[in-house]
Design goal:
heterodimer, A: alpha+beta, Heat Shock Protein 90, Helicase, Ruva Protein, domain 3, Ribosomal Protein S5, domain 2, 4 domains, 6-stranded mixed sheet, B: alpha/beta, Arc Repressor Mutant, subunit A, Dna Topoisomerase Vi A Subunit, Chain: A, domain 2, 2 domains, 3-stranded antiparallel sheet, 18% strand
C-alpha cells in the first residue's frame, strides 16, 4: 500500500475512535459507572421499541457479571420480533444511522448513538466481540453471530455465523422470536440512585406493559443485586402516528431543505402537503404575508424569501398540530406502575391534555405517591421521564424539576423549607413529558431545557396532584380523629364511669347526654372492600348522629362510572345525580343512631377503586364528608346533558328541566320515621327524647 | 423547723377519692369527667416568701375527657387510685416501674411508657397534696451515699431501729440513703461536722473520700448521683433544719449542674408541689464556676448548641434571677466553655483537697 493511502486509512480509523473518545461524555460513556447504565439503556430501549412496533408484550432480562479486572459482561435478552439475518449488520454496526431521525413522532430513540455505541465501546475497551442471537418468527432456526466494528468503513464485521435452534436456558424450550446480545466492556457496577437497578425500576414504572428482570453477579457467582418488575397491564401503549412538521416549529435551514427537495409545483400545495395545521386559507395568508406569489415553484425560493416565510408563519393564525402522535402512559397505568415499584398508601395521578409549544405537541403526566414505606426524612424522590425514558442525571437543572419546585408544597401537606427546592416528606413524584421534540439542555440528554408552556403545564399538573394529596391527608386526619372519638365514647368513658362508681360505691351515671356533649357532630365513615369471589368492589358508608337533634341527609358518593361498570347490590336504591355520582336519601336519623348504606360496583378490577369521595346534602357539618356544591352539580349536569344531546341522538336524553325536577325531588323533606337500617348508639335514648330536643 | 407532713391512711384514701368524685360528679350532671391540676411549667412557679422556696402558682388546667388522650389519663388516675388503695390496705409498697408493669392488666387504662405512669402519679400527688411515699410508690433509683461523722437510726425490715455512724460503721461506698427518710423510717441522732458537701459526680466523691476530706474539713460528703433523688434532697433538708448545717454544692460547671443546684436550693419545676419539704434555701453553690475556669485555667470543652439553649432558658428562670447567677451565666456564654469537676486533676490528685476547696471555702469563711 502506498504510504499516503496507509496514512489516510489510519487517519480515518483514528478519527472514528477519536470521535467516540471526544464525545463520550454525551454518548454516555464518560465514566466506568455510567458506561454500564448507558449500555443497558441502549439495549433495553431498543427492545421496548421493537416490541411496541411488533405489538408484543415485552419480557426483558438483563444479566451483568463481574469479570476479572474492571470488566463487566452484559447480557440482555428480549422476546421481541428479532432482527432478520440480513439486517443485523446494519442495526449493530452503523454509526448514527437511525430511521427515526427524520420522523416527527414520539419515540424513545432519537437519543443518538444507540446500540452501535455499545458494540464500539466493548471493542475499544475490552477488545471483545459482541455476540448476538436473533430469532424471527418465520424462520425455523435462530442466527448466532459475533460482531465487531470496522471503524474504517463505519460498518459491522460479522464472524462465526451459524444457524441453530435457540433454547431458553431455564425452560429448555425453543424460543420462537427474540434477541439476545452479549458483550464485555470496561465498566463498574454501582448501586444507588444512579444505577442500572434504578434505571430499570424507573423504566418499569413508565412501561407497565413490560416485565423486566435484573441480576448482577460477583466474580464468585454470588448475587450483588437483583430485581424483577412484573407487568401490571396487558395493554400495549397506543401506536403513534407520524405527523408532518408544524410551521411554528420549523427552522430556516429545514425549510430550505424541504423547499429544495419538494416535488410540488406550487407554493400553496407545498405548504398544505408538507406541514400540519395549514389549510388552503392559511397557506394563502402566509404567502401574502411573505409577499410571495402562490404559483411559484418551491425549488426556486431564495433564502431571503424563505426567511420571509419563517416570519410569516408567526403572523398567520394556524391550526394546532394533531396530537395523536403522542403516547401518554395514562393516569391509571401510572398509578399501577408506581405502586409496583414503590410501596405507598396513596397515589394521585394526572394526565393533562395535549398542548403545543413552538409547533410541537407535548403532554405532561404527573403521579404522586405518599406514605407507606417511603422515608419521611429527606427530600422526596423525583422520577423524571421524557418519552418514557428515565432521566437520571442533572436533576437540579431540569425543567421537570423546576416545575415541581414552583409549587408551594407546604399548602398541600409536604414539608417545603422556605418554599424552595425539592419538598421533603414520605413521597415520590413522577413527571413524564411526552413530546415529538423534547428539548434538552445539552447533547447528553439528561435534563429538559426551559420552556414556558411546558413549565406551566407541569406546574398545573403538580397543583392537581397536590390537591389530591391535601384531600387525602385531610381525610386521614379526620378519620383518625373520628376513630379516636369513637374509642373515647365507646370504651374509655364507660370504663371511667364504671371505675369511679366502684371506687366511690355510687350509682353509674347515664352516659348518653355526656356522649352527645363530647361528640356533638355527625360522622361519616366509608369503607371500600373487594369481594374476590364475585369480583365486586364493595363500599359501605355509615352515618352516625351524635348530636342532640334529629338529622336528615342525602348522601352522595362518587363512584368509577364507565361503560363497563355498574352499581349492584344496592338495597337502599337511590338515584343517579350526575355521571359517577350516586345519591341516597336517608330516613331521618335520630340522636344517637346510625345507619349504613351498602353497595357494590361490578366491572372493576381489584385495586382500581381505592378512594371514594362522600358528599352530603343537609344541615350542619358531617365529619368525613363534604357538603355538595349545588351550583357546581347543576352545571355539571347541564354540561353532561348537552354533551349527550350533541353526540347521540338515538339515546334519548332527559331534558334538563326533568333533571332539575329530579334534583328537587331528592331534597329531603322532614318526615320523622324510624325505619330503615338505623341502629341506636346508646341504648337508653328513646325517640321521644329526640323529639323534645328538636 | 421540722415539718410533720405525715398523713394517715384514711386521709390518703379520702384525698384520692376526691379525684374520683370530681369525675363522678361531673358525669352525674351530664358533663364529661374532669381533673383539675395546677399548670406545671416555668411560667407557673413563683417564690413563696413564707416558705422560702419556689411553688406552683395559681394557674389551673382542667383535664377533661373530650379528647382520647385526656380521657385515658383520667382512667389511669382511677386505676392508680384503686391500686394504691389495695396497697395501703395490704401494707405493701411498689416501685414506679413495678406499677408500670402491673398496669399491663389495666386494659385500656394501661400505660404505654414509664414516663406516662410517673407523670400520672405526680399529677395525683399534686392534686391530693400527698407524697408518693404516702401512696407506697417508690422511685427506681436509690438515694445518695453519705460519708462523714453523722449518726442516723434507720428502721430495718424487721421493724428494729439500727444505729449507723456514717464514718465508722460504713465501707468506702458510704451509707446508702433509703427512699423514705421521714421520721417513721429515719431518725437524726448525732453529728460532729461543720457543713454538708453535696457532690455531683461519683469520681469526685471517691476522690474526696480517698483524700480523707470529710475528717480534714469536718464535713459530711453526699454523693448526689446527678440530678438528686427526692430522698437525697429531703435528707439534706433535714440535716439543714435539724442540725442547722450549711449545704455546699460542688458540681461541674455546665448548665445542667446549675439546675441540680437550683433543685436543691429552690425546688425543681417537676416537684414544686412539695418544694417546702425538699428544698434547702440555705444551700450554696461552691463551684465549679465560670470564674474558676478562668482563675484556675481549667481544661474545658466548648458549649454545645443544647448547652447554649439551656443557658438562655436559665437566664429567664426565676430561680436564677439573682445578680450573681446572671453574671455567672452571662460569663459562661461569653467564654463559651464548660468544665468538669475532675478537670482539677490537671494539677495533681491532691490539688482539689489541698488548694481548690480550701480556697473556695475560705472565701465563704470556712477555715480548717
Amino acid at each position: 500500500m502506498d504510504p499516503a493511502e496507509r496514512l489516510s486509512s489510519k487517519q480515518k480509523q483514528i478519527s472514528i475512535s477519536e470521535f467516540f473518545e471526544k464525545n463520550k461524555h454525551f454518548l454516555g460513556f464518560d465514566t466506568l459507572q455510567r458506561s454500564i447504565i448507558t449500555a443497558v439503556k441502549e439495549s433495553v430501549d431498543n427492545s421496548l421499541d421493537a416490541c411496541e412496533e411488533a405489538r408484543i408484550l415485552p419480557e426483558i432480562n438483563v444479566e451483568i457479571n463481574r469479570m476479572k479486572g474492571d470488566r463487566l459482561r452484559l447480557i440482555t435478552q428480549d422476546n421481541g420480533p428479532g432482527i432478520p439475518r440480513e439486517d443485523i449488520e446494519n442495526v449493530f454496526g452503523k454509526f448514527l444511522l437511525g430511521s427515526r431521525f427524520h420522523a416527527i413522532r414520539q419515540t424513545r430513540g432519537q437519543q443518538g448513538i444507540g446500540i452501535t455505541g455499545v458494540v464500539m465501546y466493548s471493542q475499544l475497551t475490552a477488545g471483545s466481540k459482541t455476540k448476538v442471537v436473533s430469532k424471527i418468527a418465520k424462520d425455523s432456526s435462530a442466527v448466532f453471530v459475533e460482531l465487531g466494528i470496522d471503524t474504517r468503513r463505519n460498518r459491522a464485521i460479522k464472524s462465526g455465523e451459524t444457524r441453530d435452534t435457540w433454547l431458553d436456558e431455564k425452560t429448555k424450550e425453543s424460543i420462537s422470536h427474540g434477541l439476545r446480545v452479549e458483550c464485555e466492556m470496561r465498566a463498574k457496577y454501582q448501586r444507588g440512585r444512579q444505577s442500572v437497578h434504578q434505571y430499570l425500576r424507573m423504566t418499569s414504572i413508565v412501561n407497565p406493559h413490560a416485565s423486566i428482570s435484573l441480576v448482577v453477579r460477583d466474580r464468585d457467582g454470588s448475587i450483588i443485586e437483583e430485581g424483577a418488575w412484573q407487568r401490571t397491564t396487558e395493554r400495549l401503549p397506543r401506536e403513534v402516528s407520524e405527523i408532518r412538521p408544524h410551521p411554528h416549529g420549523i427552522q430556516l435551514g429545514s425549510l430550505q431543505r424541504m423547499l429544495k427537495e419538494s416535488e410540488e409545483r406550487k407554493m400553496t400545495s407545498f405548504l398544505r402537503h408538507n406541514f400540519s395545521g395549514v389549510s388552503m386559507r392559511a397557506a394563502r395568508e402566509i404567502l401574502a404575508a411573505a409577499g410571495l406569489d402562490e404559483g411559484r415553484s418551491p425549488k426556486r425560493i431564495s433564502s431571503d424569501d424563505a426567511q420571509g416565510m419563517v416570519s410569516a408563519f408567526r403572523k398567520v393564525k394556524l391550526l394546532s398540530p394533531p396530537t395523536d402522535c403522542l403516547s401518554p402512559i395514562e393516569d391509571l397505568l401510572i398509578k399501577k406502575g408506581l405502586s409496583k415499584a414503590i410501596d405507598s398508601r396513596f397515589a394521585s395521578t394526572i394526565t393533562r391534555g395535549p398542548k403545543v409549544t413552538q409547533g410541537n405537541p407535548f403532554q405532561i403526566e404527573v403521579g404522586l405517591v405518599f406514605g407507606g414505606n417511603l422515608s419521611a426524612d429527606g427530600p422526596i424522590e423525583v422520577l423524571r421521564f421524557a418519552n418514557r425514558v428515565p432521566l437520571m442525571y442533572q436533576q437540579g437543572g431540569c425543567l421537570l424539576t423546576k416545575g415541581l419546585e414552583a409549587v408551594d408544597w407546604k399548602r398541600y401537606g409536604l414539608d417545603h423549607p422556605g418554599g424552595k427546592g425539592i419538598p421533603k416528606g414520605p413521597a415520590a413524584v413522577l413527571i413524564h413529558l411526552a413530546s415529538t421534540n423534547v428539548q434538552f439542555t445539552s447533547e447528553a440528554k439528561e435534563a429538559v431545557s426551559d420552556n414556558e408552556e411546558v413549565f406551566e403545564e407541569i406546574r398545573l399538573a403538580m397543583l392537581e396532584v397536590g390537591r389530591g394529596l391535601k384531600g387525602h391527608l385531610k381525610k386521614s386526619s379526620q378519620r383518625k380523629k373520628a376513630r379516636e372519638k369513637f374509642e373515647l365514647i365507646n370504651i374509655i368513658l364507660p370504663e371511667i364511669s364504671k371505675k369511679s362508681s366502684e371506687l366511690l360505691s355510687r350509682e353509674e351515671p347515664d352516659l348518653a347526654p355526656i356522649i352527645t356533649k363530647i361528640m356533638d357532630a355527625v360522622f361519616c365513615e366509608e369503607e371500600l372492600g373487594w369481594d374476590a369471589e364475585r369480583k365486586i368492589a364493595t363500599c359501605s358508608i355509615t352515618i352516625y348522629n351524635y348530636t342532640a337533634r334529629a338529622r336528615a341527609y342525602t348522601i352522595l358518593a362518587k363512584w368509577p362510572e364507565s361503560e363497563e361498570t355498574s352499581i349492584v347490590e344496592n338495597a337502599l336504591g337511590g338515584k343517579k345525580q350526575a355521571n359517577g355520582l350516586w345519591a341516597w336519601r336517608l330516613d331521618t336519623l335520630n340522636p344517637g343512631s346510625a345507619t349504613t348504606i351498602h353497595f357494590g360496583v361490578s366491572g372493576l378490577r381489584k385495586g382500581e377503586w381505592s378512594d371514594a369521595e362522600i358528599f352530603y346534602r343537609g344541615n350542619g357539618e358531617v365529619i368525613g364528608a363534604t357538603k355538595i356544591d349545588e351550583k357546581l352539580l347543576e352545571e355539571l349536569r347541564k354540561s353532561e346533558a348537552l354533551e349527550a344531546a350533541e353526540s347521540e341522538f338515538q339515546n334519548p336524553v332527559e331534558p334538563i328541566s326533568q333533571l332539575k325536577e329530579r334534583a328537587e325531588q331528592s331534597e329531603v323533606s322532614q318526615p320523622l320515621s324510624l325505619e330503615g337500617g338505623q341502629t341506636s348508639l346508646f341504648g337508653n335514648f328513646s325517640t321521644n327524647d329526640a323529639e323534645e330536643v328538636e | 423547723m421540722t415539718i410533720d407532713r405525715q398523713k394517715t391512711k384514711e386521709e390518703v384514701v379520702d384525698a384520692l377519692h376526691g379525684v374520683a368524685s370530681e369525675m363522678h360528679d361531673k358525669m352525674l350532671k351530664g358533663n364529661p369527667p374532669t381533673m383539675t391540676l395546677p399548670v406545671r411549667s416555668k411560667s407557673n412557679i413563683g417564690f413563696d416568701k413564707n416558705l422560702g422556696v419556689y411553688k406552683y402558682g395559681k394557674k389551673k388546667t382542667i383535664r377533661d375527657a373530650t379528647s382520647l388522650g385526656s380521657a385515658r389519663q383520667l382512667l389511669r388516675a382511677l386505676h392508680i387510685t384503686e391500686f394504691v388503695e389495695g396497697m395501703i390496705s395490704d401494707g405493701k409498697t411498689s416501685t414506679l416501674r413495678e406499677m408500670y408493669y402491673i398496669s399491663e392488666g389495666w386494659g385500656h387504662g394501661k400505660f404505654s411508657s414509664q414516663n406516662e405512669s410517673n407523670g400520672v402519679s405526680e399529677d395525683l400527688e399534686i392534686v391530693t397534696k400527698c407524697l408518693r411515699e404516702d401512696f407506697g410508690l417508690r422511685p427506681e433509683e436509690d438515694g445518695a451515699r453519705i460519708i462523714g461523722n453523722v449518726t442516723f437510726e434507720e428502721r430495718n425490715r424487721k421493724g428494729d431501729w439500727m444505729r449507723i455512724n456514717c464514718r465508722d460503721d460504713v465501707g468506702d461506698s458510704g451509707y446508702g440513703v433509703p427512699y423514705n427518710v421521714e421520721s417513721e423510717k429515719l431518725r437524726m441522732i448525732d453529728e460532729d461536722i461543720d457543713f454538708v458537701m453535696a457532690i455531683e459526680t461519683g469520681g469526685m466523691f471517691d476522690r474526696l473520700v480517698e483524700n480523707g476530706f470529710d475528717e480534714e474539713a469536718r464535713c459530711a460528703l453526699v454523693h448526689l448521683k446527678g440530678q438528686p433523688a427526692r430522698s437525697t434532697r429531703r435528707i439534706m433538708r433535714r440535716m439543714s433544719d435539724q442540725w442547722n448545717k450549711p449545704i455546699m454544692v460542688f458540681a461541674d460547671c455546665d448548665p445542667w449542674s446549675f439546675r441540680i443546684y437550683a433543685s436543691i436550693a429552690y425546688g425543681a419545676i417537676k416537684t414544686a408541689h412539695i418544694s417546702e419539704y425538699l428544698a434547702t434555701k440555705e444551700a450554696t453553690y461552691l463551684g465549679i464556676t465560670a470564674d474558676d475556669i478562668l482563675a484556675y485555667d481549667l481544661p474545658s470543652d466548648d458549649l454545645t448548641k443544647q448547652d447554649l439553649n439551656a443557658l438562655n432558658a436559665e437566664l429567664s428562670d426565676p430561680r436564677f434571677a439573682t445578680g450573681w447567677w446572671q453574671e455567672q451565666i452571662q460569663l459562661m456564654q461569653e467564654i463559651g466553655k464548660k468544665a468538669e469537676q475532675q478537670s482539677l486533676a490537671k494539677y495533681g490528685l491532691d490539688f482539689v483537697t489541698d488548694t481548690y476547696l480550701p480556697e473556695k471555702l475560705g472565701a465563704l469563711g470556712f477555715t480548717y
